[in-house]
Specification:
Blueprint (H helix, E strand, L loop, with lengths): L15 H20 L3 E2 L5 E3 H4 L13 E3 L17 E5 L4 H11 L7 E10 L11 E10 L5 H16 L5 E7 H11 L6 H8 L2 H15 L4 H16 L4 H9 L6 H16 L4 E5 L13 E7 L4 E8 L3 H6 L5 E6 L1 H10 L10 E6 L5 H16 L3 E6 L4 H10 L4 E5 L6
Parallel strand pairs: 1-5, 7-8, 12-13, 12-14
Antiparallel strand pairs: 2-4, 3-4, 5-6, 6-11, 7-9, 9-10, 10-11
Length: 420
Amino acid sequence: MALSKKPVTGMKDILPAEMQIRDYVIGVIKETYAQFGFTSIETPCVENIANLSNKQGGENEKLIFKILKRGEKLNLDTAETESDLTDSGLRYDLTVPLVRFYSNNAANLPSPFKALQIGPVWRADRPQRGRYRQFYQCDIDILGEPTNLAEIELITATTTTLGKLGFKGFEIRINERRILKAMAEYSGFPEDSFDTVFIILDKMDKIGLEGVSQELLDNGFTKESVERYLSLFKGMEEHKEDGLAFLAEALGDYLESDVKENLFEIIESVKATKSADFEIVFDPTLVRGMSYYTGTIFEIAIPQFGGSCGGGGRYDKMVGKFTGNDTPACGFSIGFERIVLLLLENNFQIPNAAKKTAYLIEKGMDVQRLGEIMKQAQDARKNGEQILVARMNKNKKFQKEQLTKEGYEEFKEFYKNPLQ
């Protein structure tokens, strides 16, 4: 039987034209984040299965690619449960590996620690536009900073990066997990059902207020609680100019006193320092799926994509799962794959790219002339040009068409007879 030449479902080959865009985007990301004091780290692709399955990753824990035990540790005859068969898995995000990394190396790291991590992650998800089973994530995180300076820096660094990549008119949506909980408490929902309420609320942009209302009722919540809950959203709609202030007043003692001021400071500070064309807006329907978030949460909405192109938030309790001592932590993940997709769809051209010239050499050329041509190519490279030296194909027209797709702008043809 012939071997399959297609990638595994949900994964893809990356052709040179896309790879050039990806490399460029990574370069912009690294350069910009370095200007904000973030330093690069790297963690293994494989993590202990207990770390990945600690009920911190929400729905993603159902999508783990698990790895069988090896050698003598794998005993199929005596295995009774899945845990008898597997001891590790491919990481589904970069946050869990980062927290383990920090817990293991904190003594050798500055405080606060500003980390940049770029690398592949894996999820056994249903593939769709902009979503694959293997994809790159790009995270910046600040560990050890308890104040909202972390959120301000993360949002400013990320939006500056998007601006440098040419994105305009996007939104940063921001909310607070404590606001979500206060709204649920105010409405009278049972505490053990908060996650169900939040999952339904997260559908607001797809099914609208009435759809959320009906689904809450269908899940057995009382009409009184649902109406009280919806009254908060209707009130904020009437007070668009300052929905946060309205909500804080309506919730009263249900909401911790510092939450409103904390969010206000973040929003106003980002507005005052932004260098890209975007808006930062308070969105009480923003939930974010990860259960490890403890405070501020935020998300990137780019109109051309029609969905989230990155997000993050504060996760102050996660380091404590490893060390026993909680450490303030906050992170922002830029939607690398979706950003690359948008750039490709818009025929993005890398600015200030080195000139690309192809030297096409006829076969059978004598050694001396070949050497002269190779030296000419080296001299051009020293001057910053990108030179491809290749043998001339019989179908020269097709060869040039293929090279043009790779960005080659000029072709120089060299024949055995210099007069040709």
